[in-house]
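Technical annex, item 7. During the second reporting period the consortium partners agreed on a shared format for inverse folding records so that results from different sites could be compared directly. Each record opens with the tokenized structure and is followed by the designed sequence. A conforming record, contributed by the partner at site C, is shown below for reference.
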């Protein structure tokens, strides 16, 4: 998995855009791409404890049948997952990425994603099917140490990026990473601070200017950081939002379910 872009696919409406954004990212980063489908344990298995509820003979007979049904269900879910992976691989091949690793894993989704080694970028759909990627979005993002790209249900090649700046040391590190990332090279950059101070925003401008990046900077006022950022993104046509790690700062804290709801047509990178 070294230095790999991992696209998490589940067959939901976000699956196609996840593949498209992952292809865009893998090409920009010159990184290999892997598709991941997770089969989670059902919280309501067909086989349950029937002790004391029915007769012994009936219990044994029904338990055997339920075990058979559960096994068949697992087999069908596995086959469905492999079909999803195959379809996504074909989509990526048509997009010019013929060599794609296909992974199918079993277990708790957030734990599996947190345990993947040396992932360059994780790509997730904003909305998923039941017991799959999108429905676990908040917990998945919280556990990730590497950048996570959360995408909407339609794909458009990013051309304008909004960087959420709050003046923290974490924000400074992320902005510095942005200046050297080939993924964002050539994109029009906007640096936006909500309810901050002009000196801090000037600091962000100087970091970008030192890297030879011409960016527009803007201070805005809003009672809600997430609402202010999303409003700016809509008004200025930015289609990609870059934010800090969850909970490390004021801007980071705004990367929440509310932010993703407000910016539901935008792709968001959590660094």
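Designed sequence (site C submission):
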């Amino acid at each position: 998995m070294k230095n790999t872009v991992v696209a998490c696919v589940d067959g939901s409406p976000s699956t196609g855009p996840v593949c498209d954004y992952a292809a865009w990212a893998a090409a920009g980063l010159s990184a290999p791409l892997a598709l991941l489908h997770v089969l989670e344990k059902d919280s309501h298995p067909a086989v349950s404890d029937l002790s004391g509820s029915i007769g012994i003979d009936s219990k044994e007979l029904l338990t055997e049948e339920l075990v058979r049904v559960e096994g068949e269900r697992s087999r069908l879910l596995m086959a469905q997952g492999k079909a999803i992976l195959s379809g996504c691989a074909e989509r990526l091949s048509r997009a010019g990425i013929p060599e794609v690793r296909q992974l199918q894993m079993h277990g708790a989704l957030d734990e599996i994603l947190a345990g993947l080694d040396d992932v360059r970028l994780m790509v997730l759909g904003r909305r998923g099917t039941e017991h799959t990627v999108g429905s676990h979005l908040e917990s998945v993002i919280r556990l990730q140490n590497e950048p996570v790209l959360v995408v909407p249900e339609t794909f458009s090649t990013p051309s304008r990026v909004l960087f959420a700046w709050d003046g923290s040391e974490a924000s400074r590190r992320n902005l510095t990473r942005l200046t050297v990332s080939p993924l964002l090279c050539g994109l029009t950059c906007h640096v936006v601070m909500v309810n901050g101070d002009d000196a801090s925003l000037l600091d962000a401008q100087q970091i970008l200017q030192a890297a030879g990046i011409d960016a527009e900077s803007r201070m805005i006022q809003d009672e809600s950081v997430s609402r202010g950022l999303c409003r700016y993104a809509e008004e200025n046509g930015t289609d990609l939002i870059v934010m800090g790690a969850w909970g490390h700062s004021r801007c980071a804290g705004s990367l929440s379910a509310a932010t993703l709801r407000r910016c539901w047509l935008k792709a968001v990178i959590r660094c």
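The radius of gyration is 22 Å. The first helix runs from residue 15 to 29. All partners now use this format for quarterly exchanges.
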